[in-house]
Design brief:
Chain A folds into 2 domains: 14-299, no CATH class; 412-466, no CATH class. In chain A, 24% of the residues lie in helices and 37% in strands. Chain A has helices at residues 32-41, 46-61, 98-107, 109-116, 135-139, 147-153, 155-161, 172-180, 413-421, 426-442, 447-462; strands at residues 23-28, 80-85, 119-124, 127-133, 143-146, 185-189, 199-204, 211-212, 215-220, 225-233, 241-243, 246-251, 256-264, 269-272, 274-279, 284-291, 296-299, 302-305, 311-320, 325-334, 340-349, 354-363, 370-380, 386-395, 400-409. In chain A, strands 5, 6, 8, 9, 11, 12, 14, 15, 17, 18, 20, 22 and 24 form a 13-stranded mixed sheet that branches. Chain A has a 10-stranded mixed sheet with strand order 4-3-7-10-13-16-19-21-23-25. In chain B, the strands form 3 sheets. Chain B has a 9-stranded mixed sheet, with helices on one face. In chain B, strands 4-5-7-9-11-13-15-17-19 form a 9-stranded mixed sheet, with no helix packed on it. The chains are: A alpha/beta (466), B mainly beta (342).
């Protein structure tokens, strides 16, 4: 079994590994019949089916966004809405079919679980194939299951929060998500529980021409703490894949959640993901995001600071190479006094890649004595690429301290020259500078993921991802 | 009628309410009375005036059916020492629809001052086009001292050719609806600066929309906006610096600072930067906030009244723009600000 060596300098593209694991069920089309079939297959209660059907209706009513990357070339009818592998959900890696396990082995998921995680989950196409939480945390009352199982086992808790952060009518692709959602994770951290190790869910989309619509719902109860890591990847194909996942986060009073994501979808992927977090009094959400893959990404996590003293920290890096259009950013709503947010965003564009930073900071009337600080920096590695910054800031109260700054620039010739006089080749010098540019973001990730991020940067610099 | 004003060049999601704004107001009828005074040393420049019965369009989303066109040409190599002043004091309910075309021929220089004032409701619709030839230099100062219930629409477009330098300064201190549009094309080794000072009060709506392109090598665009909002005024600032392909070694900077003086005002800003060229330096910054109680307390402990302390802090913030203006203009601005803060 090949083991992923995160410290290896080898640039083997482990993310492109394909497998021929048989598919039990593959559905095309956006009809009530398919929606009902998925719901029945998952043995869902009626209220969930109702949400699915309402969302399907909404999907047909809503239009594509009139802004951002052009999606008009995308023929949704070619996307398989539900791809169920033969394998079911198990609690031991040994029980995962070998060909699927090999993929996750290469990605280092089982090793990471053994060494550094409190629990992990793995999704293959539309289905969770593995989910486990260490006994220690099970005893503390922590719930970490697949979302499908969450609905079946904890219906009251799920019903209380499901669709409450991200409503079904938010936009066209979230309506599509709610109609066809499958897989994802459900996490509940009880009052006062603190996990000293992260949970990790990894989403792998293997089937060509398929859509993945996983739903992640996390509730961190009063005074509890959680670090959650989400990984995403897919092998490259010549046909388009669609990822329209949804993440709903609830950080209750004085709770803390760090939500880290490394997205490395293949370059045939449309990543139209939606993430929202509600933060109550004294709570804190930290987003750490790395966007590397996909053909088109539209991703703007929203944090709603609803309680007095709620905090948000947002750290993001995007790297767009040839043929990529990464339209990312964030939204923050300050909806209570003494709230604060701190945003650092960096982007790198190369070989004609397009990076757009799009943000909206809204300070409501009642958010007195709030503070916001946003900074974004863009690095362009050539003149074929493009980098745009579109930050919208709305202040509705006087008692606020707000600052936004942004910079766009290139790698200075002097710096490259200096490094070359020290014996580095031009490419090595550029690589060193780019890694230095990304270092403040890499530092925010756990060390294994920082190494993975640097590896992705190396692969992007070589142009070998996807 | 309802008008969709100042649409954004690169739209973003409609939820942000920044792509465009709509305003409802009665379309004023033009009558010929509103006429600009032109003063200064006019001997070396060429001025043509003409009343035209055709549409005057601008990118502001509002157009008029007839207007006066004033064409001013500064001949090659001519340097006009003192500013040419175009001014008008509106009588009650008076309207003025004017287009001014400024043509600076090679290596010429001239400064212009546009001043508008009124005591009552008035409607100003001014479209200005400035073309600066190679090596030309110009400063255009626009002052809005209109009455509280007035409308002020000002659109300016300019092309700044190789080695030329243009500075536009907008002083926005009057009116209930104030709409500004600026479009700049900055060519090789030229400099295009925009300076804006505003104070919104009562229920005024202010919309600033500037789109400056770095088109060729070594071009510099600079936008600096300093302002304050009081009462229930609302301000939209949308500034775009666009580095076009081929503008290597160019610089673009954009800064907007807004002081919020009341709990019912609203500030919306979009300092946008678009970049198609690697070898450029682009920066933008926005800051907003209230005047800190500590600062007020310090100034008041030194013997200033609260009103004086506010005034000192505001003028300190505005000084980055005021420092380059003639003394008589600065004193006019100070008087107007005092009147608005009263």
């Amino acid at each position: 079994m090949a083991k992923k060596d995160v410290f290896s300098s080898s640039q083997e593209n482990i993310y492109d590994t394909k497998t021929n694991h048989p598919t039990l069920q593959k559905e095309y089309g956006f009809t009530e019949e398919i929606v009902k079939k998925i719901s029945k297959d998952k043995e869902e209660p009626d209220w969930v089916l109702e949400i699915r059907l309402k969302a399907l209706k909404k999907f047909y009513e809503l239009e594509d966004p009139s802004w951002g990357p052009d999606l008009s070339f995308f023929d949704l009818s070619q996307i398989a809405t539900y791809v169920k592998p033969v394998s079911g959900e198990v609690r031991k890696w040994e029980d995962v079919p070998e060909e699927i396990r090999n993929v996750f082995d290469k990605l280092g998921i089982p090793d990471a679980e053994k060494e550094a995680l409190a629990g992990s989950g793995a999704q293959f196409d539309s289905q969770i194939v593995y989910h486990n939480l260490t006994e220690e945390f099970q005893k503390k009352g922590v719930i970490y299951t697949s979302f499908d199982e969450g609905i079946r086992k904890y219906p009251d808790l799920v019903k209380k929060y499901f669709t409450k952060a991200v409503p079904i009518f938010d936009h066209k692709y979230i309506a599509l998500h709610y109609a066809f959602f499958s897989g994802g994770s459900f996490v509940y951290i009880p009052k006062g529980a603190r996990l000293d190790r992260p949970l990790q869910s990894y989403f792998r989309l293997n089937a060509p021409g398929a859509g993945q619509f996983e739903h992640t719902l996390i509730i961190v109860d009063e005074g509890a703490e959680l670090q959650f890591i989400e990984g995403c990847s897919a092998p490259g194909y010549n046909e388009l894949n669609l990822h329209a996942g949804c993440v709903e986060l609830f950080v209750l009073k004085n709770a803390y959640l760090r939500f880290s994501t490394i997205e490395n979808w293949s370059k045939n992927m449309l990543n139209l993901n939606t993430k929202k977090c509600f933060v109550e009094e004294g709570g804190k959400i930290e987003w750490i995001m790395g966007s590397f893959g996909s053909k088109i990404s539209m991703l703007y996590p929203l944090s709603v600071l609803n309680g007095v003293g709620a905090k948000c920290e947002f750290t993001n890096i995007s790297f767009a190479g040839a043929g990529q259009n990464l339209d990312t950013g964030l939204k923050i709503i300050h909806n209570a006094p003494l709230t604060s947010s701190l945003v650092h965003s960096k982007s790198i564009s190369k070989d004609g890649g397009i990076c757009t930073f799009r943000s909206h900071a809204l300070v409501r009337k009642n958010a007195k004595n709030s503070q916001l600080s946003l900074s974004c920096e863009s690095l362009m590695l050539d003149s074929e690429s493009r980098s745009d910054t579109i930050p919208v800031n709305t202040l509705e109260t006087e008692n606020v301290t707000f600052s936004h700054e942004a910079k766009i620039g290139k790698i200075s010739d002097q710096t490259i020259y200096y490094l070359m006089t020290r014996g580095l080749s031009e490419e090595e010098a550029k690589g060193l500078i780019v890694r230095g540019f990304a270092e403040p973001i890499a530092k925010a990730f756990p060390v294994e993921y920082a190494v993975e991020m640097n590896r992705l940067i190396d692969l992007e610099l070589e142009g070998s991802i996807g | 009628m309802k008008y969709r004003l100042n649409a954004l060049p690169v739209p973003t999601t409609n939820h942000f309410h920044i792509n465009d704004i709509s305003l409802e107001f009665p379309k004023p009828k033009y009558h010929m009375e509103g006429d600009l005074q032109i003063e200064g040393d006019l001997s070396s420049i060429v001025i043509e005036r003409e009343f035209l019965g055709k549409k005057l369009t601008s990118k502001m989303g509002f157009e008029v059916d007839s207007y006066q066109e004033i064409r001013i040409t500064i001949p090659k190599g001519v340097h006009v020492a003192k500013p040419i002043v175009l001014s008008h004091h509106f009588s009650s309910r008076e309207v003025l629809f004017t287009k001014i075309i400024l043509t600076y021929l090679e290596d010429s220089s001239c400064d212009f001052t546009f001043t508008f004032s009124s005591d009552d409701t008035s409607f100003l619709y001014l479209v200005e086009e400035a073309h600066l030839g190679v090596g030309a230099e110009g400063n255009v100062l626009f002052s809005n001292f209109l009455g509280d219930t007035s409308y002020c629409f000002y659109a300016q477009e300019n092309v700044v050719e190789e080695g030329a330098k243009l500075t536009h300064t907008l002083l926005d201190l009057g009116g209930s609806v104030r709409l500004y549009h600026g479009f700049g094309r900055t060519l090789a080794s030229s400099m295009n600066q925009l300076r804006v000072l505003y104070l919104g009060d009562k229920e005024s709506t202010l919309d600033f929309h500037f789109y400056y392109q770095n088109e060729e090598k070594h071009s510099t665009n600079s936008i600096l906006v300093e302002g304050a909002l009081k009462d229930s005024s609302c301000k939209n600032f949308r500034g775009t610096i666009d580095f076009l392909k081929g503008c290597s070694s160019s610089v673009g900077e954009e800064n907007e600072n807004c002081i919020l003086l009341s709990d019912t005002c609203r500030s919306r800003s979009l300092p946008q930067m678009l970049c198609h060229e690697e070898d450029v330096v682009g920066t933008h910054g926005v800051s907003s906030g209230h005047i800190s109680q500590d600062t007020l307390f310090y100034l008041m402990s030194r013997g200033l009244s609260e009103k004086e302390a506010y005034h000192v802090i505001l003028m300190g913030n505005f000084s980055r723009i005021l420092k380059d203006l003639p003394e008589e203009v600065v004193s006019q601005v100070i008087d107007k600000i005092e009147e608005m803060l009263a």
